[in-house]
Specification:
7 copies of one chain form a homoheptamer.
Chain A (H helix, E strand, L loop, with lengths): L10 H7 L4 E6 L4 E9 L5 E10 L2 E11 L4 E6 L7
Antiparallel strand pairs in A: 1-2, 1-5, 2-3, 3-4
């Protein structure tokens, strides 16, 4: 269930390994989303499923399936790696 | 009537599956639009029909058919998935 | 005289159908223009005729023929569709 | 001496028809220039002659020949069309 | 263990030499990350492992594996070179 | 010694005619530079010689040879044309 | 040891002539760096050695080898030319 660091040769490999897993997505305007990564492309446009907009650790809005444009994204981090990597 | 998550391989697949359905579109400058997705292209330029500009959940303006430039868009979420996905 | 939603397959189809008609153009810096759409290109550079810069629903300046650069545009909406679509 | 709207098929046609004529150029940072359009390219880089930087309708600075980078431009409007189009 | 300056002919050579080493990454919005550089591409998209978001020299958040989009990055500096180069 | 307006067909012609002459360069963040134009490219990256950073008409800093990135430039104006065009 | 202005035909020639020499780099967000230029590419991504982040003429931080992304750079000036050009 955990994403391996040693299989990652190019940045998109991490996104590929995170498909079907929960990720945290930080946007430029302080917005934060948590959801299951369904798809991405080379522009880092992504689709999240079961998307929740977060604010200070609390769920602010349930958005379901959501298309996020890549150019507003700062970082994407798989949730499973954030504590015990 | 609902958009399936399992048919989505690339981000644009979600937009394709959302054609003819109501979507919520969040822009960079805090503007929010709700309308029926009629068309999109690879720049994420979109056309909404029956467009409503929203403000705090209230309709602020009726815009009818509207062309939205992709580079101002943060996310697009089909309304039917936002509660019971 | 009204723009049909069902003939629109790509976003630029709406702009094409709006040629010779009055459109409302919202720019990023809160500027708003109303004028007759004369021309557009793939960068969404447009030419408006009989252009009026609007401010809170009032005409602020008459600009006649005006070239608007695409990258400052948020949305373009044909006036005829904004009320009774 | 006046620029015809009916000969404009593409946005750059208006710039071409405005060569040798006075235009008003609005930049993103509230700067406004008036001058005679000498040249432009597809990036909307332009050269104005007899350029005046304007502020609230008053001449602020005389700049003579000036190269303006396209990506700071919001709109370009030929002066002859701004009142009696 | 230290990164050599004399083997660097192109900017990406430094990133290549820093793979598997701890780097400090400064983003545009004052965010700062420390982590082990796993991967990068020509857009300067990078993957950090064991990522820590820093604030005034203190760890603010543990993010594990993280994909950072290149266009938000100001600079990347390998930690081993920052004191005794 | 003066730059002719009638030889300018494309915007870069003005920069070419200004080589070896003093120009004033206005940047986006209110910085202003005066120097002798040595080189430019299609991105409007330029090299100035004997560069002075100006502030309210006063020299703020002497920078000698300086490479300026094109995307921060608003306009470039040859000094010889700014008064008696 | 000094950089010649007369050998510069294209902007990147100055960067090439500055390799191995100390340069001052001004970034968009008021950050300033001084270091020895080791490498650059056409995006103006650069690598500095012995990098110091400066603030009001004082060293704020020692960064050693640092990769700086081109799109945050305003100007690059070789230190040897800034006083006696």
């Amino acid at each position: 269930m955990c994403v391996m660091a040693n299989g990652i040769e190019r940045p998109l490999d991490l996104l590929n390994a995170s498909k079907g897993k929960e990720v945290m997505v930080q946007l430029k305007n302080d917005r934060q989303f948590v959801g299951v990564l369904r798809a991405f492309d080379i522009h880092i446009n992504i689709v999240l499923d079961n998307t929740k907009e977060m604010h200070n650790g609390e769920v602010r809005k349930n958005l379901g399936l959501t298309f996020l444009r890549g150019d507003t994204i700062i970082f994407i981090s798989p949730s499973s790696t954030s504590l015990n990597e």
